[in-house]
Amino acid sequence: MSNTVSRADFDQVMVPNYGPAGFIPVKGLGSRVWDQDGREFVDLAGGIAVNSLGHCHPELVAALTEQAGKLWHVSNVFTNEPALKLANLLVEKTFAERVFFCNSGGEANEAAFKLARKYAHDNFGADKNQILSCVNSFHGRTLFTVSVGGQPKYTEGFGPVPGGISHFEFNNIESLKAAISDKTCAVVIEPVQGESGVLPADPAFLKAARELCDAHNALLIFDEVQSGMGRTGALYAYQQYGVVPDILSSAKGIGGGFPIGAMLTTEKVAKSFGIGSHGSTYGGNPLACAVAHKVVSIISSPEVLAGVEARHQRLVTGLSAINAKYNVFQTVRGKGLLIGCVLTDAYQGRAREFLKAAEKQQLMILVAGLSVLRLAPSLVISDADIDEGLKRLDAAVAELVSAK
Question: Which positions bear N6-(pyridoxal phosphate)lysine (predicted)?
Fold first, then answer.
């Protein structure tokens, strides 16, 4: 098969900040993907929890196609119908009273952190500016968001980084108590830490965070870029915990593959973003909002949300069967269709070897750090695709174990 470009072109023309797989996907449908050579892959990666309804979902294709024939972009000098409809839907389905649209999770978190500081400045003075976040958290790749994220490897070589940021231990109430003060303007938490290994928060930890923020007049921010939009079995994970934040960031799955991010907040907090205080050229783009409205409408249905737990159980049962044969996982953890398989001591640091072995079996999976395999498939993946994906993972693990 003749191709105009190949994987080798990446190394010649792209900035080398990524190390993509050895094949190039060219077509997707549901939870199957085909590469340039026509090989069919099972997708249990979901574009890193982005393809929430799989590839080329017909209702998303229709929404995009319809909007593409109407209006693409007008800028924020004007508003547009798809943005207003999406904002209304998010307000209806969540705690939020106000919505800000942007293009990514990093942008949504950037807006959240800026708003938290501006709100504190407006209401309590300039000295109340400290942002607290968790060790090993991940909130984006802008200089501000990597600084808030608790992983030094992402800020090395990029200094000086923004100040006024401190970190505490995830799921450790005493660590948060020791860190928070009346100078704290916001506490930022992922209800399920994604990049650091798929770690769900303890309910008591989130409840304590809410109480501590209230006691110190600090805002509670939930980063639900990865855990949101049905991924855990609720529209947003905070709804399962019964702990309501002041600000929530959303992206990834909300667009089903089309780039869009959103920051949700209350009317009281939103007032600190007056005209001209923040913006995004493409934020609220009609194409993105039309697609996202369809995504939210589908995912928020009881049928889809209930199906997430059933698919979780099917995957976990299959993963347990694989582990019974090969003993490669210490534990399988996570919520809904965000699942982490923690490798045993014998395979610590070798997650990418499993990724490569899966690729050879025409299976797409993810890693979360050096020692955790991550699965984040479509929320509507079929039982047949789950079973075939598990079959291919079994073959990949068998090959890797035999080569040990």
Answer: 252
